[in-house]
Specification:
The structure is a homodimer. With about 450 residues, chain A is mainly alpha-helical. Helices cover about 65% and strands about 5% of the residues of chain A. A 3-stranded mixed sheet of chain A has the order 1-2-3. In chain A, a hairpin with a 5-residue loop joins strand 2 and strand 3. In chain A, helix 3 packs across helix 5 and helix 14 packs across helix 15. Chain A is elongated, with a radius of gyration of 30 Å.
């Protein structure tokens, strides 16, 4: 982007107080670039100066793209009138997402700053549950009636187009806003102006319900390759649209949340670099404590083999290897399942066939790994230890894979996110089973 | 989607050989739904029958959306003439991605089936490296000249629009195809027809180079919220466009690859359910063997404390707890870093500030976890063991976090994907350090 090149120049202009030149320079930038530049600025005062130089229209666009921290710092320097101006200029979906990030009282105060008509819109969008399609939608779209001619529809698109988030898709509704069809703009451009809108309609459409999970919007948009989707309530009334840019943001956020879950971190709100030490602590400690609880069982399982261990300490040297191998194979299986479930490639009912294949793969993996540690077992503890370690390796790897395969399906059945089957969780559970399997096999081979 | 409801009906129609009704039913479906239905069919014969019933145009669209397995099975039943027909009807970017999936000789044979003009296009797109923007682009876009009037431009859009992948964006080039500007369609619709295209131009555009990594397309499209991006070569000649639907697919694939890496699985091509046992084995075994290699060091480290362990076997019971806690905290840090690097929220140069914060967070986490295991240490082994275990916990958690924070930056420096810092890898490295830290501290407290 431009900002790395122009950063020093901008700083110099601020120092020299050349406001006119600064204003002209900024006018040539795209709003997302200005936002990124403001996000990266160290000096809060410079940020306020730059932001105030922007035209009202660009200012709102930039504000919508800013990170949480920069946004809050800017708002702290503004009075209610200035905040009101920005809020009015924000597109409704960005406004809703801004409100969603703020504490309840602040949201209420800001909603009250809006003019009456816009206030109703904001409250309506905020009324839908977090993570729902309702929170993503914007009521700014173009709708035409089936009885209109294409010419009249195009005139209407021309008039209404400026306020709409997109005109790539045009929606057909009746006079009471019942949803009838979704048509791409090019149908209107390519058709004769005298044709009726009704004749362009093909009845091919997909729509979302405002209470749908926002992941549904990602899935449907990816599946049908549409740049915008209509949101229709249960009475078939058209409420708004969801556009591809918001859906791409959701897809990114959902992937990030799943990444955090795979590492047993409760998803953060906002960017990682903006999170404070306290917030990071709070997001990480609960799972670490749960994992300690589970790990205690592995210790307890070992304690029951105390006598054998004290007679053959060499057995313990293979313990990290064995329990980690079980955990590693299990994490692999779990990640494959979690991702396949999230992408809809595998359905919850498919667990039997998935398990069959994973057991087969795990058997092959275990055999390979068992052979690899055989030699080491001979060298460190003789043939009996080697046999115990190799056999335990096969068993532990297969057991880890079975746990890793089944846990995501089980979590799904319990209506929890399958991604909760994180690598650390699988490792901890596999440890307990690994300890039991390894020492039981060893007990047999060492004749205890 | 429809298919779950209509599946049984379709099967009945096939059995009764009611081809006309089947054809009519299918005509009401969207191409992605038909593709999903064909993907899920068990009977290859039924799939061929259904596919042959589709119109040529819909058939190509469906073919583009099919999974690898269904596609290959269908192609095996077709002669060259039939394959040629489908290839010609496929949009160039889908054709390139199909060719990319097939072995070299098959690609060559298929390219030869294309008419001369299309052959050049396919070879041009295939000439760009895998994972490059060049492979994603389509040459089917609408370009207008600056000296045209808006009315003439709209006429041109009308004529060329049908063959274009999108007309949401219109590109301005000069007569030698030098790229000048990118404009949204609504500027043309909203402007007076007598205005010149030159007057609509604002010089605000972003473009891609065909040799850019395809992740660059994802980043830029997310940043600027544009439904299509122009691809321009180093001489400023416009080569094609990349559209949001292909970019969403790339974003999905890249996220999936990163998920696989976090679990130490080499990224698969194609969907997980379509992967064979042999392929899964090959993608999983290399990392498992590397991890065994690393784990051996943990065993060796333990062997050096053999004497102490045989005198205080109770120490070993805390081993899984301690080494797992280090690995868990490390996996959390690594995942946070990998994701922040991938999203561009953190830059490679930020490692110092990231490390500072992570050490602070890890200190707090370690203290909490150390306190939690204190009581257990007293109960199982008395005050000396309790002190050793608690202190080791703090040290191990901090060490794990430091490894987890630094490894992604180190991998990045070595020009490897930071996501290679998988949970299993962090766990295995943390194990070695954990064993050394724990037993060294224990040796001090137990006076050995």
């Amino acid at each position: 982007m431009l900002k790395n090149l122009l950063g020093p120049e901008i700083r110099e202009l601020i120092e020299r107080k050349e406001w006119e030149t600064l204003k002209e320079t900024l006018e040539n930038w795209e709003a997302p670039d200005i936002a990124e530049f403001l996000d990266d600025m160290d000096s809060g005062t410079d940020r306020v100066i730059l932001f105030r130089l922007l035209s009202r229209e660009i200012g709102a666009e930039v504000f919508a793209e800013l990170g949480t921290t920069a946004r809050e710092k800017l708002m702290a320097t503004m009075n209610d009138l200035q905040i009101r101006e920005i809020l009015i200029d924000l597109p409704p979906d960005d406004r809703t997402s801004l409100f969603g990030e703020l504490p309840g009282e602040v949201t209420q105060r800001l909603v009250n700053l809006l003019p009456a008509g816009e206030r109703g819109e904001a409250l309506m969008l905020l009324g839908y549950p977090e993570q729902s399609v309702g929170r993503l939608m914007t009521p700014h779209y173009v709708a035409v009636r089936p009885e209109w001619t294409v010419g009249r529809a195009l005139n209407h698109i021309r008039r209404r187009g400026r306020e709409s988030e997109t005109i790539s898709m045009v929606y057909v509704t009746d006079s009471s806003w019942a949803f009838l069809d979704a048509l791409e703009l090019h149908h209107f451009i390519l058709a004769s102006p005298k044709k009726k809108v009704r004749d362009l309609m093909d009845g091919n459409f997909v729509h979302l319900n405002p209470y749908d999970d926002r992941e549904e919007a990602v899935r449907i948009m990816e599946h049908y390759n549409l740049p915008a989707l209509p949101v229709v309530d249960s009475l078939n009334v058209m409420l708004g649209i969801v556009t591809f840019d918001d859906v791409m943001d959701v897809a990114k956020e959902e992937a990030t949340e799943d990444f955090y879950r795979t590492a047993a971190v409760t998803p953060l709100r906002g960017n990682y670099p903006e999170a404070g030490v306290g917030q990071l602590y709070k997001k990480r400690i609960p799972w670490l404590m749960v994992l300690i609880g589970i790990n205690l069982f592995a210790g307890a399982a070992m304690a029951s083999f105390e006598e054998m261990i004290s007679r053959a300490v060499a057995l313990v040297f293979f313990l990290p290897l064995l329990i980690d191998s079980g955990g590693n194979a299990g994490s692999q299986s779990a990640t494959l399942m979690v991702r396949a479930l999230a992408m809809g490639d595998v359905r919850p009912g498919d667990w039997v066939s998935m398990l069959g294949r994973e057991v087969l793969v795990a058997g092959l993996l275990g055999l390979t790994m068992g052979l690899a540690v055989w030699g080491l077992g001979i060298y460190r503890g003789g043939p009996a230890v080697a046999a115990a370690v190799s056999l335990a390796m096969v068993a532990v790897v297969m057991m880890g894979s079975v746990i890793g395969t089944l846990l995501p399906f089980l979590l799904n059945l319990l209506r929890m996110d399958p991604a909760t089957a994180s690598a650390p969780l699988i490792t901890s559970i596999a440890d307990i089973c690994g300890v039991l399997i390894y020492f039981s096999i060893a007990a047999r081979f060492l004749g205890t």
